[in-house]
Specification:
With 430 residues, the chain is of the alpha/beta class. The protein contains 13 helices and 19 strands.
Length: 430
């Protein structure tokens, strides 16, 4: 009998890194068949259990619950709604207070970018990390994808990137292969790999560029089961070309490192809320508020992620059979391209430039980039930095842009605010 080596390797890797992965996965495959009422009861049970734990162990929440008159042992949903909403910047400043002591349990270092360059680092306990991976794998299963199957991965600021070592490794890959390049040469080199690939994941803008190239060359791979887009807004014109060339539209996975998977698109094209992991609310401006009740090692409670979403009416049913509520639309995460003289770059490249500076020099820089002309980029800095720091920024940026873009570093204290969320890249070029 032949053994599937990729499957074995995947299982061994998972067993070592995420011992509770398969328990979470089989639980999720069981609960996905629940009725809405059963799901709601399941969700509230786990939410209460989580809040009791946090209310008794987190210094910050213990104090807050006391002030609000909440008894963690008997906490109700009504009590939960009295807990103040928290923004990302508040979370950053509150970190040392609400952060849990490192336990003997296995933990994973995570990071996420702020709205203008700050980097939040925290630990994910093993069960939280495994649950998140299991949620992702359940999403794959809706498209018939087995996790060990051959895939193409375009680097990205992905929820899966959770270990420092892994981030370094990715950076290494990045520098070496420049998979985020939009140029034809690097995408062209993937052509030979495509017939073996079962699924593609990564930036929708890069997937779009790949599809355009394959269209031009008259290639239509027939073996793909799923194309998953992360981090970036998926434009309709992307979908048209991708569907034509690969036979599938790009499915969305919605989440963040701190919230875990919030929703995953099913085969019928609806984004189902991951009710077994998160409690989703929206405020009067349709801003999403997420509670991740697996975040035992770093509490994420009533957290404003910074996206506006449109929830489907409660009675909207999906043909796929899942009773999990549907997110109709996600706004606010628009990833436009930075235009060099010869190439295009995802705007998240800037995040990497400033992240590297933060990790190497421990200097947090608030920035916003503006582009009005191809090949030229203005970088506004909130703080006045030294000439040496300016050189470091130019040096770090050079690793990505080389001489393709002229950078101009300016000291500006007033960043333009658009639609609530402070963006790190603003362009007037269409
Ligand atoms: Zn569905």
């Amino acid at each position: 009998m032949y053994m599937n080596l990729s499957k074995i390797l995947f299982r061994i890797g998972a067993k070592y890194r995420n011992p509770s992965l398969w328990n979470h996965y089989s639980e999720l495959k069981k609960t996905e068949k629940y009725s809405f009422e059963e799901l709601k009861a399941y969700q509230e049970f786990h939410l209460r259990k989580y809040l009791s734990y946090v209310g008794e162990t987190s210094v910050y929440y213990k104090d807050l619950f006391q002030k609000l008159g909440i008894n963690p042992k008997t906490i109700t949903l009504k009590d939960f709604f009295n807990i103040p909403v928290i923004s990302k910047s508040e979370l950053l400043s509150r970190k040392s207070e609400s952060y849990q002591e490192k336990k003997s349990e296995k933990e994973f270092l995570c990071e996420t970018s702020g709205t203008s360059g700050e980097v939040l680092t925290f630990y994910r306990n093993e069960s939280w990390d495994s649950f998140n991976r299991a949620s992702m794998l359940r999403g794959y299963s809706w498209h018939g994808v087995k996790p060990w199957e051959s895939n193409l991965y375009f680097w990205g600021y992905n929820t899966d990137v959770s270990e420092r070592r892994k981030i370094r490794f990715l950076d290494f890959l990045l520098n070496r292969y420049r998979m985020f390049d939009y140029d034809e040469k690097s995408l062209f080199s993937l052509e030979k790999k495509l017939p073996k690939v079962k699924y593609i994941e990564g930036y929708s803008s890069v997937i779009y560029e790949l599809a355009k190239l394959m269209e031009k060359r008259g290639i239509n791979p027939k073996n793909l089961k799923m194309i998953k887009g992360t981090s970036e807004k998926i434009y309709p014109h992307y979908q048209d070309v991708v569907k034509k060339v690969f036979g599938h539209k790009i499915v969305s996975e919605y989440g963040a490192a701190e919230t875990g998977i919030i929703a995953f698109e099913c085969a019928e094209g609806n984004m189902h809320i991951n009710m077994e992991g998160v409690y989703v609310e929206t405020d009067e401006n349709n801003e999403i508020i997420v509670t991740n009740f697996h975040s035992y090692s770093f509490p994420i409670i009533r957290y404003k992620l910074g996206d506006s979403v449109i929830l489907a009416p409660g009675d909207k049913k999906c043909k796929c059979g899942l009773q999990h509520p549907i997110i109709e639309e996600i706004n606010g995460r628009i990833g436009k391209s930075i235009l060099g003289e010869n190439k295009k770059y995802p705007s998240l490249t800037l995040y990497y430039v400033f992240k590297n500076i933060y990790l190497k020099h421990k200097v947090q820089i608030n920035y916003q980039a503006h582009q009005t002309e191809k090949g030229k980029l203005d970088i506004w800095l909130k703080e006045d930095v030294s000439e040496k720091m300016k050189d470091l920024i130019l040096l770090e940026a050079y690793k990505y842009f080389e001489t393709d873009i002229d950078l101009n570093i300016l000291h500006r204290t007033n960043f333009r605010q658009k639609s609530g969320k402070l963006r790190d890249f603003i362009t007037t070029i269409d």
